[in-house]
Amino acid sequence: MPDEDAPPAELNPGTVFEFFNEIGIIQQLSRAMFEARLPDGMIVQHFSVLNHLIRVADGRTPLELSRAFQVPKASLTNTLSGLEKRGFIEMRRHPTDGRSKQVWLTEEGRAFREEAIRLLVPDIMALSDKLNIDQLTRLTPQLAEIRKILDDNRSA
Amino acid sequence: MPDEDAPPAELNPGTVFEFFNEIGIIQQLSRAMFEARLPDGMIVQHFSVLNHLIRVADGRTPLELSRAFQVPKASLTNTLSGLEKRGFIEMRRHPTDGRSKQVWLTEEGRAFREEAIRLLVPDIMALSDKLNIDQLTRLTPQLAEIRKILDDNRSA
DNA sequence: ATGATATAGTTTGATATCGAACTTATTGGA
DNA sequence: TCCAATAAGTTCGATATCAAACTATATCAT
User: Using CA atoms, how far apart are residues B52 and A76, in angstroms rounded to an integer?
Assistant: First the structure.
């Protein structure tokens, strides 16, 4: 059965829905691909945190991280405790705000991230044969733009 | 040894990471947005199944659905039991294969989906003011292409 | 026909997610 | 100063996810 009475072609909710549907499947597949290469019980979220601490700088607070990843702070508590248990990060008291903490990378954490990347590269290279990297490079900023709009919309 | 022909300069793994990172955040945000409008304990996966059964046709088997959504069949078992408990689907024996089952929509299921869409449309319309729908329309087939590559790569 | 193998779906158990309540610390106003 | 309101992080409980083992059925080779 087709949709309701023809709305203006571009405002069809199905268009938006299809877009998010593709996003969801890609996320599912890429997560599985990454996690297959990570050792033990490490999951993408663990790796993402290490990566973020390298890219931005360590010493971030849990709240900063939860905002960066758009997940509830309770989820971060869990992720960070996993990383701490493995000795990849250190939680220190915040120097000026007693309520807060800082997340610092350990040497083991840095080394693990490098090793993880080394393990991932072959997969990515194999994909690169098939993926159009130019296309990916063009898509990323467009996705970032959409992500920002969704994020603003959320808090609005 | 493989040839050492100059690799394209863009083969930086970071490019691919960034792409998947944006995908992940958009997925997170859009899921939260949809679920905020769904009643009770309904989650996106429930809605997606109803939607798929309408779009394709009901009478699909659980395995077909798990392939369509790229999730393990054990996850589908759980999702389907939630839908069945709410009376939105009926599980029937497969007419020719005793190992299998068929998933049929009930009237309640169809009605619920229509109602859910009605509740989602205002959000999507609000977004449409800010999102560039033409851009979205251009992006979707490109994402579908990437999704196919990832999917093939998975089973290969 | 018959046993071996493969397939559809469920169960189980372990972990991830995350809203809500809670604890502790900071801030701001009187 | 004091206390009410706010903020950072944790705990708790309920649910989702999913690999591995399991059950039941089908298919294939001999």
Answer: 33
Statement: residue A85 has pLDDT above 90: yes
pTM confidence score:
0.83
Report if CB A74 to strand C is under 7 Å. Answer: yes
Residue B6 has pLDDT above 50, yes or no: no
* Strands A89-93 and B101-105, bridge-based pairing: unpaired
Query: A12: helix, coil or strand?
Result: coil
The 10s digit of each residue's pLDDT in B88-100 is 999 999 999 999 9
Contact A16, B138 (CB under 8 A): no
| pLDDT, tens only, B12-24 | 667 888 898 889 8
Tell me how far apart the alpha carbons of residues A95 and A28 are, in angstroms, rounded to a whole number: 39
- The number of CA neighbours under 13 Å toward the Cβ of A134 is 1
Interface test with A, best of B3, B19, B118 (most A CBs within 10 A): B19
Contacts of A133 (CB under 8 A, 6+ apart): B8, B10, B11, B15, B16
DSSP secondary structure, B90-140, as one string: EEEE-SS-TT-EEEEE-HHHHHHHHHHHHHHHHHHHHHHHHS-HHHHHHHH
CB contacts < 8 Å between A and B, how many? 162
Instruction: Please tell me the number of Cα atoms within 13 Å of B93 on its side-chain side.
Output: 5
Distance CA B47, CA B44 (A): 5
Does residue A55 reach within 7 angstroms of strand C, measured from its CB?
A: no
How much of chain B, in percent, has pLDDT values that exceed 70? 90
Q: Which nucleotides of C are covered by protein (CB under 7 A)?
A: 7-12, 15-21, 24-27
Please, which positions of strand D sit below 7 A from a protein CB?
A: 7-12, 15-21, 24-27
User: Between the CA of residue B100 and those of B58, B59, B94, what are the distances in Å?
Assistant: 15, 11, 5
